[in-house]
Every structure is written in structure tokens, then in C-alpha cells.
Amino acid sequence: MDNLTEFRAGMKNGLPICLGYFAVSFAFGIQAAQIGLSPWQAGLISVTNVTSAGQFAGLSLIASQGSLAEMALLQLVINLRYLLMSAALSQKLSPSVRTLPRLIMAYGVTDEIFGVSVTRPGNLNPWFSYGCILISVLGWTGGTAAGASAGAVLPEILIAALGIALYGMFIAIIIPPAREQKAAAICVIASMAASALFFALPYLKGISSGMKIIIVTIGAAAFCAKLFPLEEEEP
Amino acid sequence: MKLYSYILVMAAVTYLIRSLPLTLIRKEIKSPFIRSFLYYVPYATLAAMTFPAILFSTDSILSAAVGFAAALILAFQKKNLITVAVGASAAVFLTELLAGFL
Questions:
Q1: How many other CB atoms sit within 10 Å of the CB of residue A36?
Q2: Of A201, B34, B58, B70, which has the highest C-beta tally within 10 A?
Q3: Domain with B56 in it
Q4: Distance from CA of A4 to the nearest CA of B (A)
Q5: Closest to A47 measured CA to CA, from B10, B86, B18, B81
């Protein structure tokens, strides 16, 4: 397929992400406004970071006036999963893809964009990612600015309901493949069970939430890789 | 002005994490273990981030549990991202509304 077709396919696949992002980042915008950020400042965070969990955590650090070193460490731990996703994505590209397209694609490595990119059959055309990134970031940033502007006038019950949107989005990404593939389902269940243990058990629950996610991710993914190695499925 | 320093640090750290593997890993990884590991990473990480955190994402565990169930049901029917996210929010909204009357 040529680049334009790929770009359009990326936009089409990105549209549900864009709408989902709008709902989630709307909640982020509301919280940002609550700690005194303007819609422009909240939007600037979203357009430069494009990361749900990292931004929400970063916002509470800004509110508590933490140090810049703490901020760097926090982002490193929470977003370390992108390192793994970026490595996985490198395997979807033809080795002939140059550095500039790789640098642009890196900007849009999020859970959701990664999810739709990595499940494309065959090699990934960077133009597919550009389309998907463009429309998704529009939704993410627009939702943030809208939430920061309008949040103050919304009733509390609506704000509480939007708090779950982020997780709904995560579930929409992991459940459909888990339905098709037993190993992915086991990975999801094992990871949720381990995460619940880290939440409940003494000693383990003292670990920071970002670190828990890293430990559980590496543990569950290694466990499944050992037990259910992928078949060679190259076309 | 401190706010902009925070934003710069957040953005720089996050971008470095995202860009290093994509630009540095040019060859196909041969090890079946590493390939399989990378394949399972998104499932493991999103699952870990979702549970149990989802139970504390609203005003009460009850409404969160209802929202969680709604999201699972919709996702099982392969509804898209926006349907699942908004459906879960709507379930939470209705539960909170009902709980307010009881």
C-alpha cells in the first residue's frame, strides 16, 4: 500500500482512540484546573507528553511541589513500559526505515497507539503511525483543554464517572485479543492477580505504584514467554 | 516558571524512553524468548495498571465495580475503545445516581 493509503488507514484506526482519549484527557484537564493550571498549560503537558498514567502522576507531584529529580524518576518508572513497547515496535519495522521516521514514531508510543500498530499484519509503514498519532494527539490535547476550561462547571457525579474512562480504554485494548488467544488471556489474568497481591500484601504494598507496574509487567511477560513462546509466524 | 521546568523534565524523560529502542534496535531480535517477552508486555502492563486501580477510580468501590463489569462485557463483545470507555463511565454514573436515591 502507498503512504497516503496507510496514512488514511492510520487515521481511521486512530479515530476510536481519539474519542477515548478525549474522554480520559477531559478528566485530566479537570484535575489540572483544580491545582491551578490554565487550559493552555494543561494542554501543553498533554501535547508534549501524550501519556495518561505519567501525566496524572506528574500532576500530583506538581501539586505537592516535588523536586525535578523526583519528577524525572517518577516519569522514568511509570513510563518504562514504553521502552519495552518501543523495542517491540522496532521489530515491526523494516530495517530500511531511517532515523527520522523512527524519531517521529517514537513521539506517539502510547499504550493504545502501540496496540493498534503492533497488531497490523506484516511490516509497519511509518505513515500508518503518523495518521494514528495525529488524530489521537488531537483528541488527547483537545480533551485536556476542554476539561480544564469546562471542568469547574460540571457536577461532581459526572467528574467521578469520567474517572473510570482511562481503565475502560485499557480493557478495550487487552480483552479482545485475550478472547482469541489463550496465552494472552493467561497473561492478563496472571498480571491482574500479581498486581492485586502487590496491592494487598504487607511489605509489597509499600512499593511505589510505578515500580509495582514494572515488576508485575516484567514478571508476567517473562512467565508467559517461558511457558508459551510464540510460534514463528513471519509471512 | 517552575511549572515549565516540570513540564520540560516530564516530556524529555518520556521522549527518551520512547525513542532510544526504536532508533537503536535496527536488527531483528532472534531470541524466541525476547520476542515472546516483548509480545506479552502490553497485555501484562495494561492489566497490571487496570487492576486493582480501577476499583478506586470513582467515588465508591460499588460504582467502580459496576463500571469494571460493564467495561469487561463490552470489551468481550469487541466494542471499540470509545464505546467501552463511555459505557463504563455511564454505568458508574447510573450507579452513583441510584445509590444517591437509596
A1: 10
A2: B58
A3: 2-101
A4: 23
A5: B10
pLDDT of the residue at B42: 81
Indicate whether A119 pLDDT > 90.
no
**Cell 497488531, located at residue:** A119
Q: Pick B92's closest partner by Cβ from A37, A51, A161.
A: A161
Contact (CB<8Å) B78/A24: no
Average pLDDT over residues A52-78: 86
Q: How many angstroms separate the CA atoms of A51 and A109, rounded? A: 9
C-alpha to C-alpha distance for A51 and A114, rounded to whole angstroms: 12
- The predicted model gives A101-117 an average pLDDT of 92
Facing B42 at nearest CB: one of A44, A85, A212: A85
Cell numbers linked to B40 = 506479552
How many structural domains comprise chain B? 1
Do the beta carbons of residue A195 and residue A212 sit within 8 Å? yes
What's the rounded Cα separation, in Å, for the pair A24 and A54? Answer: 13
Question: Looking at beta carbons, which residues of chain B come within 8 Å of A229?
Answer: 32-33, 36
Q: Which amino acid is at B45?
A: T
Q: At A205, which helix (H) or strand (E)?
A: none
Contact A13, A115 (CB under 8 A): no
A4: confidence class by pLDDT, cuts 50, 70, 90:
very high
What are the extents of the domains in chain A? Answer: 3-173, 181-235
Is A71's CB within 8 Å of B15's CB? no
Contact A82 B63 (CB under 8 A): no
